[in-house]
Amino acid sequence: MDKSKIRAIIYAVLAALFYAVNVPLSKLLLQHVGPASMAALLYLGAGIGIGVLSLAGRKVRQMPEHLSKSDMPYVIGMVVLDIAAPILLMLGISFGTSANASLLGNFEIVATSLIALFVFKEAVSKRLWAAIALITVSSILLSFEGTDSFRFSFGSLFVIGATVCWGLENNCTRKISSKSAYEIVTVKGLFSGLGSLIIALIKKETLPGFAYIAAAMLLGFVAYGLSIFLYVRAQNTLGAAKTSAYYAIAPFAGAFLSFVILRESLSWAYFAALAVMLAGSALVVADTLIRSHSHEHVHTFTHTHDGTTHTHTVVHSHGHNHYITDTNHSHHHSEKSLEDLPGASHL
After folding, report:
1. Among 25, 73, 148, 229, fewest CB within 10 Å belongs to which?
2. How far is Cα 30 from Cα 250, in angstroms, rounded to an integer?
């Protein structure tokens, strides 16, 4: 069993579940905290919380490789894009509807995969593309509020810009995911938080009371800090496109938690979208754990029969899947043999 991939899948799913907590709890806190201030506190809570964890555990674990100067372009890109994306999203919402923004926001999965494929040359299989398509459809079903909820407008360009920023940011994070996840989340949280705080000050938002600041930062530690930490760990093994696909379960978990915590109803669209999502998720798991290979063996042998020497060339073409299970590593073969091919000599 490929334990590293199993572990990475668990990390990706947990990252999505931790982030899902953000949905209902942020909605409660936004009654007392401004949106830009909320973003700042969430990011700062993530950066400070993971930074403290890093210091606390330094003596009892072997530290992974630190970020280096060569990583700085990706680190800077990660931080700048994390600041730019929410600004573009807010502009998109101000010029359009929140339903429209929610629908277009699903483009992040596609953007991440396209950038991973064309810019960072990450392999994306046909099976994974099919999974991404199903996940995108399920996300649209989840956020669809009627035929009038999707209208292309000037604001839509800003929302699409935000999803492209997040897609590029996911890939920048992927490039440094082999380095210390503690450092990545700390840097990302602190600098993105400071950037959001500057925006909050420019907007002249008033900071809330200490209790709400503490609550927002604690939520940021869980929903952003632990989530991003696990996301980075998953990316190091799975890649940007595949991790993004697993992370797409977050809206479903968030909707369910909203039902539990906020008593918001679950519509028929939720269950229809959930079924499509499960199908897409199954394809992602299959793409992660089942690897298809094909190869050929060419055998040439000579023998003498009735005083005549014959040379035969036999080509064995194997197509098989590797199925990773708990107890064995099995192969399923399909084989064809071609004897006496053109060019094989009969002497």
Report:
1. 148
2. 20
Question: Are 250 and 282 spatial neighbours (Cβ–Cβ below 8 Å)?
Answer: no
Cβ-in-10-Å burial (0-12, 13-18, 19+) of 138 comes to buried
Kindly give, in sequence order, each residue whose CB lies less than 8 Å from that of residue 211, ignoring residues fewer than 6 positions away.
none
Can you spell out the DSSP letters for 221-280? IIIIIIHHHHHHHHHHHH-HHHHHHHHTTHHHHHHHHHHHHS-----HHHHHHHHHHHHH
**Residue 278 belongs to some domain of the structure:** no
In a domain, 180, yes or no: yes
Question: Does some domain include residue 313?
Answer: no
> What is the extent of the structural domain holding 117?
3-271
Structural domains of the chain, count? 1
Whether pLDDT at 315 is above 60: no
In a domain, 324, yes or no: no
How many of the other CB atoms lie within 10 Å of CB of 123? 10
* Burial class of residue 195 (count of CB atoms within 10 Å of its CB; 0-12, 13-18, 19+): buried
- The pTM (predicted TM-score) of the whole model is 0.72
**300: nearest Cα among 311, 309, 290:** 311
